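Form 12-C: Joint structure prediction
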Amino acid sequence: MRARRPATWHTGTVVEASPETPSARRITVDVPTWPGNDAGSHLDIRLTAPDGYQAQRSYSIASAGEGTRVVLAVDELPEGEVSPFLVHEIAVGDQVELHGPLGAFFVWHPPEPDDSTPAPVQLIAGGSGVVPLYAMLTAHEAAGDATEFRMLYSVRTPADVFFRPELDALMGVDYIYTRETPDPWPTPAGRITRDALEAAVLPPDRAPRIYVCGPTPFVEAVANWLVDLGHPTASIRTERFGGS
Amino acid sequence: MQHLDGNALAGQLAELFAFDATMASTRCGGCGAVEVLATAMVYMDAMGTVARCVHCDDVLLTLVEGDGRVWLSTPGLSALEITR
Amino acid sequence: MSFITRGFSGRNRDRDPRLPPGQTLVEDWPVLSAGVTPQIEPADWSFEIKDETGTEHKWNWDEMQALGLEDITTDIHCVTHWSKLAMSWRGVPLDKVFENVESEHDYVMAHSYGGYTTNVPLEDLLDGKAWIAFEADGEPLEPEHGGPVRLLVPHLYFWKSAKWLRGMTMMPSDDPGFWEQSGYHIHGDPWQEERYW
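Section 2 - Result
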């Protein structure tokens, strides 16, 4: 039986904040009452202005497991209200309200000990959708789990890659660059295609469990292609995010 | 406009239920499909949150928050199954 | 218990006497969406009113416009706290539409392509208070804003101005529509702040 981690409101204190990419920031919050979280879950952040106005948004958690340090990686949406504040304003020592951990569906657990042939795992990220998938990778690593993991990561430019050193130390990620590639690079910059997806992901006969996270149009296209390629709907878990 | 997944309901539903309701199986009153709520199509850019059946687009539930209150409405939900 | 987040102010929230209580002025036109946006061609659009006798009064695009388009300048107020001031609209007044509709019933359920419904008392639709709208800000209504045709009842919160309007049913009582069944106020007067039950 896995630990139950009921969601409640917590108060956390920012203990680290550093640039992650030109548009994103990694923020570590110490939450003394945090019950730990499964890899892939998310939380809600609530901000309150002096006149009582509140704004609340959901963010995936980049960390997993026990412990009271919660790591976020927040990409700035220029028209947004909460993300610009988190990327530019919030500082070490500031307090924030957090609600979580949330979402028991888009999570990865290490295989049960009696599962002798666990299904391989294919992670597919679009942009900042890499955050919960990175949490799964680190949980997999921390568990000393032997399950095969692969990651396909669609990202604008090399500079926009989240967790680059950590990812490169963990595995060989299959990158697709949509705006600008490293030099040299075998394929020109461009959006993910059905062919590129087929070439990079574990084939249906390997029966992978697939996690897809990214902006809605990305997830929509990828999930439809995966079904087209013969992956059962039940093997695909998706997490879409919007734009505010 | 773009929809999200039922996962996105977790925060709002956690304020109402003692369990993670996104893991509940729901039966759509429109087409009869049974799916985990986390896989529903969720629209959050509205006057409330609207979750629709991924098969027939019927409205499974709505959540309206305001004035210190929350309204949960389940116009197209014929049953909700919770694993104990 | 919430506390003030240091340095957070949110978006600018100005005050203007033309704004009802709790409203904020916006310059853009936010799009609220509870489902897939219906795509209806003017040639395929039609509008009908069903009364208690079962009589259907029906208009196509040209027939509706032939009732007489008016230019309207009005403020609109969305229950999600934004308002737009002095928007220009073009539409057919409901007075013209109801001229030949005989009904004893005092309430209307507006129906939209896509299944949305909202209830409005007939008295809030007549006497120059509401229109079948075809244009906003000098342009045909975009699908995301309810085009090709939406209801315009600007003295009530904007959810009453049903997008993708396709018809109305006369009702003997003020039965709640989609949002009214789910927590929102049965009437929705922004100056009375009739937001919720």
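Section 3 - Comments
The longest strand of chain B covers residues 59-66. The beta strands of chain B are 4-5, 25-28, 34-36, 41-43, 49-52, 59-66, 69-73, 77-81.
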